[in-house]
User: Fold these one by one.
Assistant:
Number 1:
Amino acid sequence: MRSPRSKERARTLFLVLNGKKIGDEALREAIKRVRQEGHRIEIRVTYEAEDSDRYVLEALRQKGVDTIIAAGGDGMVNQIAAALLAHDAPVTTELGIIPMGTANDFATGLGIPTDPWEALQLALCTPAQPIDVGIVNEQVFLNVATGGFGTEMTTKTDEGMKNSLGGLAYAITGITNIGSISSITAVMKARVVSTAQKEERAYSILDKKQGAEDLEEGQKLLEDGSEVEVDGDLLVLAVGNARQAGGGRQLCPQALVDDGHLDVSYVMNIPMEEIPDVLARMGQTLDSGEMLDCFGSMRVKSLTVDCPDGLQVNRDGEPMRAKKLDFSLQPHRLKVHMANKELLVQPSQTLRHGKEVMDRKIKSAATVDRRQQQQTSISRLRTISTVLQQRSWIGFHCVGARSNCRIGS
């Protein structure tokens, strides 16, 4: 086994793998390569949700583990994060991610590569960044908690369709269920920061560079900590620690994972006949991070949503339903390996350096792979050439032999 380069300390990774991905060849090869670099990787495979909790506890009790790696989708990452909080993991505990799910919204937003070896290099080369953890009714979410029509469709989407079509499965389910669209009576109460009042009971988050002088006519900057209330017929709700959900839709395009606040986006009080058109336009604009006029937004310290008929919520791929939802935040509760500094208020000064080291390793490995492929191709061509030459020589003598036989007859 080769030892790591002199500048790179040998590390111990504790990898928790979703059992559905146990046969993934790319992951198998990535683990082999990292071990050849001199690092240690312990692997545990989950088949039930409770397995994640047990393995996280094992990792926390084991001395020398540098990083716990969640290999799976958003739901798997959520399970690992929830277990870390449940077992009161130190805030210095590092979490790495190998995206292997259907949408991988959280990992994609953090800039984590989809290639397993590259994702492992991110965990090995870059410093983990402190991030906030969202809480809803004592349940954890790292990314975005969504409610309303889109969430109902996510819950209804067939597992086999998700495996074969990926994020497209959610869109197909939404289209086929368009006739079942309905709003939900809700009351939202929040304590806001960095938020302006557009009109009565309608709000919008200020851009980081905006101040009171930048507000549009009729808008009013709310004092931080102000209590606001919004009620009516709720169509879409997104409470974001990060930005995207539903297969890349930027539901909370200004959210930061380390600012100590949650970003809330919502659509309320849309006439029934306008809902299909609103949903269609949402699909066209949210991919680019734009917000429709019908969207309201708030940046909050806390949020309470009351729904007499209950609200279906999806938190990092994990479904839940309740009549009352209490949202809060634990600031800087976990440290996560990530590449996208745009989601951070204050990225570590060493993050850029670590990312450069990772990029050089990936580029170097790609060069080596290309050379090996070229050598393999050349070797195959030589083998084929040799075989063809041998067959040509044998064929010539066989023809000669048959000719001789015919001449001698």
Number 2:
Amino acid sequence: MYAFEPDTLRILRTVMDDVVAAIRPENLDQEQRLLIARRLLTLAAGGERHPGRLKEEVLMQGTATRAAIAEKHRTTVLHEG
């Protein structure tokens, strides 16, 4: 379990809002928001505090995750179809 300073929590909250806005909130369900929050917390636990780098890293990871999900969905549809 990690404990973060109030300034770090403000940064994480701001970056979370920025990431959600960049992806578009209507495209995210609760599970996806939780994954974003976990990524941010993991990065912060590793010492990252720069908002731009946090946002960039989460968005890059998210792009890879969305591609994997899309591929899994495509494979499932092909096997079911």
Number 3:
Amino acid sequence: MNKLAIFGFVLGSTLGITTAGAVYAITNSNERYDTLKILTLDQYVGSQYFKESEYEDRLEGMYKGFVYGVEEENTMYLTEEETAKKEAEANGSYVGTGIYFTWGITNQYLVVTDVIENSPAQKEGIEIGDRILAIDDILAMMSNEVEIYDKLSYSGDEKVKYTIQKKGSNKIFDVNLKSVVVDTPSFKSTIIEGIGVVEIINLIDETDVDALLDEFQSLNNQGINKYIIDLRNVSNAELDGVVGMTDIFLGEQILFKAIDKNENVTEFVGNPDNIDGQVALLTNSRTSGVIEAMVGSLRENNRVIIIGEETAGNAYVQEIKKLEDGSSVLVSTKMLQLPNSLNLLDEPIIPDQIVDLGMDYTLDVVKNGVADIELDTQLQTAIGYLNPY
């Protein structure tokens, strides 16, 4: 038993607190929190919970619960490990083994849907469509969902064992992967039926904006003046990057506003130059955070058509406040507002054309890890809108 638990047990015995469920009667009324209550809770959980639990894990859970009390899901306590990961992502990097996944059709395995370039997973030969059967000998079954997600999100120094079945094969092998920081591109670009299709991966700062501007100008030099910007699953976007990208398409005007708790307003204004041409945006429920301000602003100015699913509806500006031990608090410090004063706080943006991906697309992904482009009904709808004939 750890020292705190022992101390709690002694206090409990001295003050008449029992482990039979009686409520303790003495509180430290002059304190903003009740130390004795914390000690008693640790006694109950640490000594009587039917599974093994670590004191440090319970302590971290207490910190998380304290911040959770603000009842806003985007403000949260981050452990030292989580803080390092968040900081890397805020700089445009990926942290992990390099695997994106979905549950397989029977929920008895995971299917690899993407592999990050230059990641440990790619270097070990893992490919899209491969199956993950187990992680550290925990079977990848829906009944083990919590444990599996813990393993998949682990970003510490220890290696994790993945049991892999190759796509279309009975070959099964184990590979040990360690989480690393990998630089990732801010976007991917291709041309489909005379339309420039730009998939945003992350949008951090002016460097990303300059690269995007160069890409749009390159497409324009090839005679392209119609664009599809894929914002589906984009949540890793920072304020500077979003302001810059909105500016690309709107020019010199108020793009959107940020308002803090004291109702101080910051207006973000674009520059005179902007890109011409028709634009369609693709969104879904994972289009989240600051990027939603761009979506709303472009539509308010009749600059785009939005196709897909409604956004997450949590357009906050967030800051990481680090603590001395390396942990931190991720705080939502400002809400975003469109020029017409419409708040984006807790309000999803509804597409102009609501289009579901459909069962055929989903089945193709869970079987093969990736769907045929023809089954992407949202993308095909955007192509049809921009190329009506």
